[in-house]
Design brief:
The complex is a heterodimer of chains A (about 200) and B (about 280). Chain A is an alpha+beta fold and about 200 residues long. Chain A has 2 domains: about 80 residues, Arc Repressor Mutant, subunit A (Orthogonal Bundle); about 90 residues, Winged helix-like DNA-binding domain superfamily/Winged helix DNA-binding domain (Arc Repressor Mutant, subunit A). Chain A contains 9 helices and 7 strands. Chain A has a 3-stranded antiparallel β-sheet. A two-stranded antiparallel ribbon of chain A has the order 1-2. In chain A, strands 3-4 form a two-stranded antiparallel ribbon. Chain B has about 280 residues and is mainly alpha-helical. Chain B is built from 10 helices and 5 strands. The chains are: A alpha+beta (about 200), B mainly alpha (about 280). At the A-B interface, helix 2, strand 4, helix 6 and helix 7 of A face helix 2 and helix 5 of B.
């Protein structure tokens, strides 16, 4: 019986994590808005980081079928609405979907897959001047300068930022897929119709 | 991707029926010459590993002619690529001089193929990014809760000795004689001119201007000070508003009244009275 009592006093969720911790993780992530790492969560909750990690795993699992999902973005975790509610959310808020221009996406792609790169690398790959686009991306905080190349003239190097991972829902840069297949560079293959 | 397909269709269509009667729709079909080359390579199923320069050069030049015939402006980039292709084509036709001993043969076609491959990858990358769920497009996230707005204490990494250093620094500063201050008003800025300059930046009611860049542009410290006081004074009498949207954000000046409602004497009474002091020196 004594075992039962302890269960009543400290409700334990499946996975061996106190329910209090699961709820705490949700509350903190809701309040923070932006992605938060395991360590700051553990410190704020005065809990063991391993337990917080376990709690996040359970919350992530539970939220998978809900309207607000828990996702890993960069080095942290963030609550985000499910993609299927995009249209009603825009209707409710009276907003339009924000879109990046084609050139902006291309410059971002070159930096994301090849970083660090110089401005010359970007221009050469695109075959057109990308100065203006690059400036916009820097202003939006999607890319940043990261030191200088050892090439003559020591040109600036560019990298993507945490904001880039956030915008494109990426846990890390390693999650970017290889592009050869999409680029239709397989020998003799006809262009695949895009959906 | 709809646009891209339409663009491809347009490009092919104009290549095949260039009698000039076609209805021309201008879209940003190709961002640059590499886009066009890539299109040609894909359309004709050309293998990048064995790039046929002559075939690509001909197709490219044909397209350039069509662009001119359709009165599309052709930017310099496009002509540079045309020249490069013609050059490569000529190289391919001519016998090559023997290479020097330590010289490595660089196939120009291979170089172009590498550039095209990199370009195709960049475009694929752009499509990949475009296809991902994006914040602001498919996904909403909360901003950091603004109602919990209390300032976080600033944590300084200072130990006891660091604090003592600061204390001694302050104490020794106290011991130093007060600085010799001189008020030099020989070139006294005119308050009215300063105020008019600010109002000139916000000519109509509701116009806004950023305060800090405005002040920074002014030539001397004295003019900046007088302009700043002028801004405060005009805000006090209600001609302009001063606002800041967010903590540490830019400070904006907004005009609230028409020119006709502005009576400089009303304000300059204060400014005039305040500037009666003559050129004076404070003894140390």
């Amino acid at each position: 019986m004594s075992e039962d009592e302890s269960v009543l006093a400290f409700p334990v969720a499946p996975g061996g994590v106190p329910a209090e911790l699961l709820e705490g993780v949700e509350a903190l992530l809701f309040a923070a808005g932006e992605p938060v790492g395991i360590q700051p969560l553990a410190e704020a909750l005065e809990a063991d980081p391993d337990e917080v990690r376990q709690a996040i795993r359970i919350v992530e699992q539970r939220r998978r079928e809900s309207g607000v999902m828990l996702e890993r973005i960069g080095s942290g975790w963030q609550l985000r609405t499910a993609v299927r509610f995009a249209a009603p959310i825009h209707r409710l808020l009276g907003t339009r979907p924000a879109r990046l221009s084609r050139p902006a996406l291309e410059v971002l792609a070159i930096i994301a897959w090849k970083q660090p790169v110089t401005r010359t690398d970007i221009d050469k790959t695109r075959g057109v001047d990308s100065g203006g686009v690059l400036k916009t991306l820097l202003d939006r905080g999607l890319v940043r300068t990261a030191g200088r190349s050892v090439d003559p003239g020591r040109p600036l190097l560019y990298r993507t930022t945490q904001a880039f991972l956030e915008l494109f829902s990426l846990p890390d840069l390693a999650s970017l897929p290889t592009l050869e297949e999409r680029a239709e560079l397989v020998r003799g293959q006809a262009p695949v119709a895009e959906e | 991707m709809e646009l891209q397909r339409a663009a491809d269709a347009l490009a092919i269509g104009s290549t095949e029926s260039a009698d000039g009667s076609a209805f021309v729709v201008l879209t940003s079909v190709f961002d640059g010459p590499l886009d066009l080359l890539l299109h040609i390579v894909r359309r004709d199923g050309i293998d990048l590993a064995h790039l046929e320069i002559a075939r690509i050069a001909d197709a490219y030049l044909l397209w350039l002619d069509r662009m001119r015939a359709l009165d599309l402006s052709v930017a310099g980039d496009w002509l540079v690529m045309a020249a490069t292709l013609v050059h490569l084509k000529a190289l391919a036709l001519l016998p090559r001089p023997p290479l020097a001993q330590d010289e490595e043969e660089v196939d120009p076609a291979e170089e172009l193929a590498a550039q095209l491959r990199a370009h195709a990858l960049a475009r694929a990358g752009a499509e990949e990014l475009e296809s991902r769920p994006q914040v602001g497009r498919e996904i909403a996230v909360r901003p950091r809760d603004a109602s919990f707005a209390g300032q976080a204490p600033v944590a300084a990494e200072v130990d006891v000795f660091g604090l003592l250093d600061v204390l001694f620094d302050v104490l020794s500063r106290e011991a130093a004689p007060p600085p010799h201050i001189t008020f030099d008003q020989r070139e006294r800025p005119d308050p009215e001119t300063c105020c008019r300059r600010v109002l000139g930046l916000v000519p109509a009611v509701g116009d806004t201007a950023a305060l800090v860049p405005l002040l920074r542009e002014l030539p001397t410290k004295a003019v900046r000070v007088v302009t700043f006081i002028g801004v405060l004074e005009m805000a006090r009498v209600g001609w302009i508003g001063v606002s800041q949207q967010e903590h540490l954000g830019p400070i904006e000046v907004v005009r609230l009244v028409e020119d006709s409602a502005i009576d400089m004497t009303r304000m300059l009474g204060h400014a005039g009275a305040a500037s009666e002091d003559e050129h004076e020196e404070l003894p140390s």
